[in-house]
Amino acid sequence: MMILESLRRQPAHGYALVQHIQQRSNNLLQVEEGSLYPALQRLLKAKLVRADWGVSATNRRVRTYQITASGLRHLEQQISSFERMFEGITLVLRPSKSTST
Amino acid sequence: MNWIPKIFRRGKLYDDLSEEIRLHIEERKEQLVGEGLSPKEAEREARRAFGNQTLVEERSRAVWQWPALESMWSDMRFAVRQLRRSPGFTVAAVVTLALAIGSNAMVFSIMNAFLLRPLNVPRAQSLFALFRPDGDSGESYPDYLDLRDRTHSFDGLVAYDVLTAGLDTGDSPSRAWVEEASGNYFDAMGLQPYLRPILPRLR
Question: Is the full-model pTM beyond 0.80?
Fold first, then answer.
């Protein structure tokens, strides 16, 4: 979901995606950089993203990932179900209002 | 059937993946060098941050594979390599297996022919074999005659025995398996003997 959201903002290659996710999370999410690649392959296989070799702004050879139309639809669904789940968790964790008299 | 071209495309997918990971680590390393690390330290730090590269590649490739099938295939290839390395063992294993399979097949063929498959006679499902529970020596002929004449449960009752006999065909007499049977054998079985009349009707 985080990968798709990052790619919705702009196409990026693997390294840039890692940087983007870490920066956006204020470095709260310190994931192993390598763990991104199996996830990217799953997204590629599901045709939620596509990848093309090209040259980056810093003149490096990079494989840039782009979100597809079905990737966008999938992302919307994922965000909406995540928000519902998050709301549920928040309600459960919220301190209950005391009704003592 | 779109999985067939996918198999051939895999080589490119894997190459792309390896190249991409190599470039990722390189980019990280260059960034760290830019931040003041020595190339050696930068290399180490870039690899540490990336994690286990072999494992990452394996997991990424696994996305495109059928894990159970492909692990079986690689097991088979491994077995073939091991067998090639020790031909003596291979020969011994193959011969042992061949003998075991051959003898099993033979025993099964015999069991199948004599026990499992019904006899090739009309109404084979109505054939029953009678034995006394208290002995294995068979019936006496007078007992058989009594049983045959008084049975109401069966259309007919046949007596038979299997024995060996000397077969003299002229030059070299040999031992042959013979089945001796009562005169009503063919009638009771519902068969026509090829040479007839073959058996006298005995009382």
Answer: no
